[in-house]
């Protein structure tokens, strides 16, 4: 009976205490070369959300579908300073879009780091550098915008003191 009471007291004490659990999932770093020939990486863009799209090539069907969904909301993404990065695992190329995409320098490694399947993966990295969302599905543009807006950093900023 003493053990039961001690256990019950410990559980009640734990339940009544305020617990702030932060479970960071740091995003694997991705590097690319910008238009001026300078090496860039995720680490330099901490504080900005990043949308990473991994596909075999810029001509991949699902990649083109995702780009089409993103194009009509680009102004909203630009207002949030979202960085877009494409990583191609098989064939390199340019992205035909009104969105300025950075192209990862080592697409196959990025695919491996993000456990991308063979056809398509999208990852959303929050302002804090944590991996907020990963899927192998083409997402509606609004869903991506919602994930960015509801990640840890905006949520914490909205909490009451």
Task: Describe the protein in words.
- The chain has 161 residues and is α/β, with parallel strands linked by helices.
- The protein has one domain (26-158): Glutaredoxin (3-Layer(aba) Sandwich), CATH 3.40.30.
- The chain is 34% helix and 19% strand.
- The strands form 2 sheets. A 5-stranded mixed sheet has the order 5-4-3-6-7. The protein has a two-stranded antiparallel ribbon with strand order 1-2.
- The longest helix is centred in the N-terminal third of the chain and has 15 residues, at 2-16.
- Mean pLDDT is 82; it is low at 14-21.
CATH secondary-structure class: Alpha Beta
Structural class: alpha/beta
- Quick check: average pLDDT? 82
Number of strands: 7
Q: Helical stretch count?
A: 6
Span of the ends, CA to CA = 41 Å
Specify the CATH homologous superfamily: Glutaredoxin
Strand content: 15-25%
Annotated CATH topology:
Glutaredoxin
Helix content: 25-40%
| Biggest sheet features | 5 strands, mixed
Helix and strand pattern? HEEEHHEEHEEHH
Taken together, the total number of domains comes to 1
Low-confidence runs: 14-21
Name of the CATH architecture: 3-Layer(aba) Sandwich
């Amino acid at each position: 009976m003493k053990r039961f009471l001690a256990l019950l007291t410990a559980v009640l004490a734990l339940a009544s205490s305020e617990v702030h659990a932060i479970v960071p999932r740091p995003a694997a770093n991705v590097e690319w070369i910008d238009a001026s020939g300078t090496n860039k990486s995720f680490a330099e863009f901490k504080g900005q959300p990043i949308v990473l799209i991994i596909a075999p090539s810029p001509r991949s069907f699902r990649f083109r579908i995702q780009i089409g969904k993103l194009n009509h909301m680009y102004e909203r993404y630009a207002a949030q300073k979202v960085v877009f990065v494409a990583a191609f695992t098989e064939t390199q190329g340019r992205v035909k879009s009104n969105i300025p995409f950075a192209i990862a320098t080592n697409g196959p490694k990025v695919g491996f780091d993000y456990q991308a399947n063979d056809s398509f993966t999208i990852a959303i990295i929050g302002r804090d550098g944590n991996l907020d969302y990963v899927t192998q599905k083409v997402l509606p543009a609004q869903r991506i915008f919602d994930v960015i807006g509801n990640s840890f950093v905006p949520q914490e900023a909205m909490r009451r003191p």
